[in-house]
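Structure tokens please, single chain.
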Amino acid sequence: MSAATYKDLCIDAVDAPRLARFWAEVLHREVDRDDADLTRLTGPTERHTVWVNRVPEAVTVKQRVHLDVHAASVDDVLAAGAAPLDLETFRWKVLRDPEGGELCVFERDPVPDERLYEIGVDSADPERIATWWADVLGSTVEIDDADGSASVPVPGAPFESFVFSRVPEPKTVKNRIHWDVDTADVGLLVGDGARILREPDDDVSWTVLADPEGNEFCAFVEA
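Here you go.
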């Protein structure tokens, strides 16, 4: 039995409506709620929801969490407002979103209906943290022998996997992209090795936690 299930995705932004419009076009989502502080993108199911939250901090370092997307051409994503970062080194194209956050574009023919492909996460120990998330979600770990990355298929999510890739640099700032989970008991997550960063209070009804590598996520207790 899993300790949690995937709920939805959250992206921080200085200009939430602007970044939401970009991601709505790239991911083929609808802008359902649009205001300066909190914008919601919706899709076919609740798990397609993407929340774009206003924060005061601009992008200052490479993101440890980024989105991989399907597109017919990288030019389509550039036209939506992205900027090129590395179009030559990899079989995919590395871009920056309108606020400077990295994303990777995988050109496809045909393009899948669901444009979100994977969520990439930088890691000090990919196999270890992938195993942790696999245990939490009731999933498995797939190791890529070529680069040592570790993938965790996410049951019920509108994308394929979390992909943890080794990097030398440590985490220094709050992640600008995180995911939310549903759980029957936050204690199950803490018992597995997460730590609580913020308890529910008058302003939030959910619990903010960090996984064993410090990646923030939010847990909602199912009624």
